[in-house]
Design goal:
It contains 15 helices and 16 strands. It has helices spanning 22-30, 38-47, 71-84, 97-113, 165-171, 198-207, 230-236, 246-252, 257-263, 279-283, 338-346, 359-369, 380-395, 405-411, 437-451; strands at 11-13, 60-64, 89-94, 119-121, 128-130, 136-141, 154-158, 182-187, 214-218, 293-303, 309-318, 323-332, 349-355, 399-400, 414-419, 424-429. It starts with 10 loop residues before the first strand and ends in an 11-residue tail after the last helix. It has a 9-stranded mixed β-sheet, with helices on both faces. A 5-stranded mixed β-sheet has the order 13-10-11-12-14. A two-stranded antiparallel sheet has the order 15-16.
């Protein structure tokens, strides 16, 4: 028998799976010629469970699964029974127009294959399907005003990781008048650029059992995992071996380990994904005196975007396995490179990282003439990794600082900016008078420090 991904979620809160209509839903779906997978059936059993009064056990239910596993098939199965057998009025919403259209297309294909009669309106962003018995589903692209004044029984939040507070305020009341309302949240873990917070809050509150009538299921790794760990692949991808292949996953592995963990292994990042670094966050890793350090210094040098300034910072490991960071200076390039070369030459430095288009090569040449070991000139992908690593260390209490006023001023007044085309991010200052290169140099030094491997002691045998 071919190996399959885990059919059971890694984390779940299921209030009940009794008195469920899941068998009717599966039978109706399979009339289309498709076969429901076991993990989908398990979710349907919980979603369609009813209490003693015949009401949905879960008025809210969310699930998070990595891409290409077929999570939207569960939505289609729930919608199919809703409009065909239960005569429900359903509103299906998505972040993108293409996603809502694909959902409409998926459901019409199922109805056609199952030979179920229906009427359909095809209008980009406002598709509709109506069943003669009274069931109806509308497909909308979300906005902060969408759905106001209309009434439905079921609200579907597709691409739930992008569902914002403003959108929730506009949409959550569309099912208030229903005698048996239900809201379904379907998505993947948010990336650092995801705009929504509702999905994350639902997950956290449901897993903490701090909300009533809510259910949750996810396939995820608890922490960053080696992309080549096949056990993690099978634990977090229930459709692996059933359409999704090992070879496909292998082809997805690239330099951005964090992105792979989020998109393929279902990792939920533990830091604030919407806001930049707050004063409280930075304050939480402040130390009152210099910690006991070990090993050599790692130097980060960043030339400003406008080419007027250059900043130098250091990072060093501590005895309690954190990384201590500190800014040395930020000067106008008119001062030349002498002060940088003197610092590096006189300090016990293990590695130097320089970033800044054009100027980094000039400094690298000066270092060569000064007989200093060649620096690292990071690629865009490495800069992206450096930014992610710095933020992760901050929120996991793995770095510390002495609260330098100039550095603190920059870090607690920054915001994220996009880098590259694969979800990477960097920082920019919220105020013109703050030079972000000071923060960037700290990030480069921190990255060089955590990437370094201890030298194995040499063993001599006689």
């Amino acid at each position: 028998m071919a190996k399959k991904g885990s059919q059971k979620p890694t984390q779940s809160i299921i209030l009940s799976a009794k008195n469920s209509l899941f068998e009717d839903a599966v039978n109706l779906y399979e009339k289309s010629g498709r076969k429901a997978r076991q993990w989908q059936i398990n979710l349907l059993k919980a979603i369609l469970s009813r209490n003693k009064k015949g009401l949905w056990e879960h008025t809210k239910f969310g699930w998070s699964i990595s891409r290409r596993n077929g999570k939207n098939e569960v939505v289609a199965q729930r919608e199919m029974i809703g409009i065909v057998m239960l005569s429900e009025k359903i509103l299906h919403t998505a972040h993108r127009t293409t996603a809502s259209h694909e959902a409409w297309e998926r459901l019409t294909n199922l109805l056609d294959s199952a030979e179920i009669e229906y009427e359909s309106l095809r209008a980009s962003g406002r598709e509709r399907i109506t069943i003669s018995g009274g069931g109806k589903i509308e497909f909308r692209t979300r906005s902060s005003k969408g759905g106001l004044g209309e009434g439905f029984d079921v609200l579907v939040i597709d691409e739930a990781q992008e569902y914002t507070d403003d959108q929730e305020s506009a949409l959550k009341y569309v099912i208030s008048a229903s005698e048996n309302p239900q809201t379904l949240f379907c998505g993947t873990p948010p990336t650092p650029h995801s705009s929504g917070t509702v999905f994350t809050n639902l997950r956290n509150n449901t897993l903490a059992k701090s909300v009533k009538n809510a259910g949750w299921a996810e396939w995820s790794v608890p922490e960053q995992t080696d992309p080549y760990d096949k056990k993690a692949w099978y634990a977090t991808n229930p459709s692996l071996g059933q359409g999704l292949t090992e070879r496909s996953i292998e082809d997805e592995i690239g330099n951005d380990v964090i992105d792979f963990n989020v998109q393929r292994l279902g990792l939920w990042l533990k830091y604030n994904q919407k806001s930049a670094i707050s004063e409280a966050d930075w304050e939480s890793v402040k130390v009152e005196k210099l910690p006991i350090i070990k090993g050599k210094l790692f130097v980060g040098i960043k030339y400003g975007v406008d080419g007027t300034n250059v900043a130098l910072s250091i990072a060093v490991k501590t005895e309690d396995n954190r990384v201590f960071v500190e800014s040395i200076d930020c000067k106008s390039i008119r001062h030349g490179t002498g002060w940088i070369l003197d610092f590096i030459k006189k300090s016990d430095v293990e590695k130097v990282v320089i970033d800044g288009a054009g100027a980094q090569n000039i400094l690298a040449q000066d270092m060569k003439e000064y007989r200093i070991k060649n620096p690292v000139l990071p690629t865009v992908k490495e800069v992206i990794i450096a930014n992610s690593s710095f933020e992760r260390s901050l929120y996991q209490d793995k770095l510390c600082h002495l609260n330098q006023p100039s550095l603190t001023q920059v870090i607690v007044n920054c915001e994220k900016r996009n880098i590259g085309t694969n979800g990477g991010f960097g920082y920019r200052s919220q105020f013109e008078e703050n030079d972000i290169s000071l923060m960037d140099s700290v990030i480069l030094a921190h990255w060089a420090c955590i990437e370094s491997k201890p030298v194995a002691p040499q063993k001599i045998r006689y």
